Every structure is written in structure tokens, then in C-alpha cells.
Records
---
Amino acid sequence: MKTRWPTKPLGDLVSLEYGKALKAEERFENGSYPVYGSNGVVGFHNEAVVKKPTIVVGRKGAIGEAHFAEKGCWPIDTAFYTKFRQPDVVSLQYLLLWFRSVDLKSLAITATIPGLNRNTLYEQKVPVPPLAEQERIVKLLDEADKLRKLRAQADRRTAALIPELFHEMFGQENSWPVENLETLCTRVTVGYVGPMASEYVDTGVTFLRGQNIKRGRLDLSSVLFVSEDFHKRLEKSAIAPGDVVSVRTGKPGTTTVIPPSLTDANCADLIVMTCGPQINPDFLCELLNQRLGDQDSIAGATGIAQQHFNIGEARRLKVALPPLALQKEFAARVQEIREMEAAQAASRQRLDQLFQSLLHRAFNGEL
């Protein structure tokens, strides 16, 4: 049985300095120093508040996110940055891994805008093995993290396959007929719009909102539910497998197809489209993502950027209609790519679990 290493309060090892205020327009100057917030690099500046390597930790927003700043940086006021009190006791790379092993979100003060308190962090106990042991742990975990980074690179390449395939098959000049979307769909409607707070239940019919719709997929991590009775009253906004749904507000035009696994659902504030016999759901999904969802804004009839994908705009949308056989060929290849993405997601989950297990074991003296 290995003995546990001695521990020290974080405040004995480092001081946590508050990031400096910086106007949003200043964060993206063509400088050489990265500007860090709670989500990582948000731009570059021509000066650095911290000119030595440091750790930047999110204190608001992405609470507890820890980033290594190698060439100095300008941390903004949503983050802390570290200054070492005892550099001969703990290494920067080892301490970064410790930050990533601790659930810092659970330490956040609950308020209108939750945040981390510096004194609370100072009280946290850090296991401190000898420096040689710290170096060994860092090397082991770096090797595991390299596998995760390779997986992420492969995932990014796979994510680009469907847009590239769409451009290859449908991006050339052609003489296809042009139709309004409403003539190609048996239904173009909008999800329920109105107060919902009293309608949610613990279990029931899946109720989708804008945050559940990602590019070409559903994210059900924050999904809510409504009662069967409420669902029946909202027949107009009921959705079924094969329906195409687009975000109406937030990131307008972001679109996915309802999968076969979601047999009974309803929605709020989404554009819902049921395809007719001339148009394939996967083709329409990618068309809307490229034309609307991938854009910084959606231009309305007057050319003014809108924050909403309006139902009228959806119905009037002009679609150059390829032959149905070509659309179906695209859909079949999309399905193959989706299956590959599912396998990659499972691999990514296993690698993340392995890395977290190694982190836990490392800071319990079990590696």
C-alpha cells in the first residue's frame, strides 16, 4: 500500500491574481500575446500583463477551466492567474493537472453570476510529491492527453466531411428548378411560443428548445419534459422522426434532422419542417446549415441582419432542387458519416474516462 503524499494549502504554493479589465475591442488587436478569459484565448494584444509562463483559471463563466499560458498573456477579469510562492516545491505543469483534477465548479459561490472566491481556493489541499515524482506523473498524463488530442483532430476532420460532400455534390452551377421551401414541405411551422415554466415535469414527453439543436445533431444533456396532456394540446408543434428543425433565436438557422430514436416529442421556438416527396431531410438540413446556421447573421429581405429565423422567411426560402436520386445518394453517405461519428464519440468518451481515471489515481498516489 502506497502512503499518501504530504499536502499543502494552495495558498502556500501560489498567489492567485485577478485578471485585468480590457475592453472587448482591444482583445483582438494584431498582437503577439494571447488574451485569456475563462474559456481560454479570446484574442491577442501587443502587451502582456504576465510575461512568464503561468496558469490561467476561470473564476466566472467557464468556472474552473484551467489553461497553460506558455509565452505570457493578458488575463482578463473573468480569470485568475498564478504567481508561484514556492517554485522549488511544485512544478507549473503538475499544478495545472491538479487544477484539472478538482471539481472547482462545486466551490463557486451561488449568486446572480456564480464565481470562485480566491480565499476558498487558497484553502484547497494540494498533494505535493517530490519534484522527480511530479515530473513522472506529468509525463504519464501528457502521453494520455496526446491520445485525446489526436482523437479531437480526427473528429474535426470528420465534422468537415458532410459540408465538403454537400459542396462537391451540389455546389456547382446547374439548371435545377427553384422552389419556395413551403411548396416542398407538407408543413413549415413554428414551435410553441409562450410561458413554459409551469409546464415542465420530471419525466414525460421530450420538449426541445434551441439549446438542444446543434449542427446536424441533437444535444439532450439539458433536455426538458412536458406532460402528455400538454403535448396533445400542442399538436401543431409536435415533431416526429424525419422532421427538420432549425433554431429560431440564439444561433438562428442551426439545423438537424429528428432521429428515429425520438418517436414522440414537442418543441418551443423552433422552425419545424416536414419534407414532402421532392426533398430529402438530410439534404434540407445541410442546405439550411450552410446557408443560414453557419453564417454570422441571417440577412432579411431588406438586407438588415436579423437575430431570428422567422417563419415567413423560412417559407419563402428559395431552394434549387437537385434530382431526388442525387439527394438520396447524399443522405446515404451522410448516414455512413454519422455512424463513423458515433463510433468516434464512443472512442472519445473512453479516452476521456481513461484520462480522468489517471488524474484521480495520480493525485491519490496510485500511479
---
Amino acid sequence: MAYTTINKPSEYFNTKLYTGNGSYGHSITGVGFQPDLVWIKSRSNADNHNVFDVVRGTDKGLRTNTEDAEFTSVNLLHSFDSDGFTVDDHTPINRNGGTHVAWNWKANGSGVSNTDGSITSTVSVNTTAGFSIVNWTGTTNATIGHGLGQKPSMVITKTKNNIAPWLVWHKGLTGGNEQDRYIILNTTDGQNTYSGYWGTGVFTSTVFGVSLNSLNNNLGDMIAYCFAEKKGFSKFGSYTGNGNADGTFVYTGFKPAFVIHKRTDTTAYSWLMHDNKRPDYNSTDLILHANLSDAEQGGYGMDLLSNGFKHRVTAGSTNASGGTYIYMAFAEQPLVGTNNIPATAR
């Protein structure tokens, strides 16, 4: 029996490793599709994260490890291509001789108008993969159409033209009403709760709410990356650490290609990023931090299994006894596709 309608997850999400050459027009191929969101980080050097999407355009970048406003340059991402992307000579994404990783998602081109919310948004959405890029101009407390056709499991927002934090709503956050819960991508802070932080609108199959703060800031231009859970392809949830090298097993229902996780019950712990390309065998102990510019680090062992992931360390950032964590994960291979062939461990 088929477990998912997505037999080949790499048609919607894929990780690509490459070496920079410091030159204008460096073509990166092998992604497998034309990406609409490209998140790039230097592995070898302490350079900022750089995020590009097709709705904002190739010459506009955001950095997940800072509160910086959007920056514009002709030397950033040169183009989104049919099998990848082309970078120019911006050092953090094309350092000569430096190693880089790019995480790529497929939405649906430059976007269309969406009037589901009280503010009209521009939405590029892939309902098959449960991913949308949403752009709007803030006013007051409002609702924003996301185009997913189902309730999102995670929403990441940023004010583009102001210095402001990256604000995240995630289905695994707890306490208070769901529109009160948030966590910040660019810091080590744990979960926060504030009444009506996401406005008075709830998260639904058509809209999410925003309030007059960093979510909808003073007529600011806003961007959101919205994710809905798709069986056999993506999973968003929480787990409790066990403080053991034979660590907590987290069931996803697929062989993971990419996992981000964050401790939420206390402060001082970063967002950790694992993928199946660094290195391409278990245990995947090489990590990058979404909230830091640090180069790649080792010593954070995680097994990517046929149906989930399992921690192999006891660090407070990943698997402390009784620690609470949220995660987002995307598949390398579904547990069982329409060909009825089961996934195997790495």
C-alpha cells in the first residue's frame, strides 16, 4: 500500500553541496528542479546565512542569523535555473575555494495575488509539497492568505525593510492559545508566549494571523515561508530528550534528508541543521546553526533512519534528559511509495 503521493522527494526539496570560485556567474547544477527558495551557508567559513526566493527576486537577500533588513546587490544570486541556480561573487555564497551547502525548495514561480486574508498577499505555492512563499505589506492586525489549502505546521516570518527578528510559529509549541506562541529563528531564546502575538486570527487552511509588531511592522514589507505537513515527505513536531547516547528516536514516516531542531524549554541553545549530504552516511555529526554565522562543526551525531531520526549524543542542544525540542524534517525517501518499495536505513 502506498504511503505517500510523492515518490521522489528530491523533486521538491534537495540539498546541494558546492565549492565556490569567487567569480561572477558560477553555475550550480544537480538540484534536480528549478528552486524557488534557496538557503545558502558557507561550510568552511564563518559567513552569514543567505536566503533568496523567487517572489523577492535574485538581487535581494536575507540573513537568518541576524535581524538585518533585506539587502540588495547585483552580486548575489544571479538566477534560478532549471537544474539549480547561479551565484555571483558575493563571498558568503561563492567564496573562492570555500565549501558551501544550499537547501532548495520548490514552490510555484513568482507568485499570484491571494485575497483570502484581510490583506491581499502575493503567494507562490506548491500544494503537493505543502510549501508557500508569501509577501505582503503590513498595516494593522490582519489575516494573510497562505495558499496551502490546509493548516500550516510552521510559519517563518521576517520584516524585509526593518531591523527585526525572524519570528516562527510551529505546531509543536505549547502553552496558551496557538496565536500567542512564538520562537525566534535568529537567537538562542526558548519559546515565548504573548497574548495575541499573531493577532486575533487563528491559523486555518487559508490564512494565518499577524499583529501590529514585528509580524506586521508599521507598513513594512513582509515575507513568510509557510509549511504544511505532507505524509511521507515532511514532518513537524516535538520530542523529549533522554540524555542518553542511545538517544531519543523521532518517527517521521520517511528517511530524512534534512532536519532542523531547536530546544524550546530554556534559552542558550541554537537551532541545529543536519542533512544527508554532510556526510552521506550515519552518523551525520556535522551541523550548522541557523542562528549563527559559524563554520560547520562536528560532534552532534544523528542517525537518519528509514522511518525517522535518532540522536547519538547527550548535548543540551539536541538530547538533554527531559529537554523539549521542536523540529522540521524533509524526506530523502518515503517509507513506502506507490511502487510499494520500502525505504531502508543509510
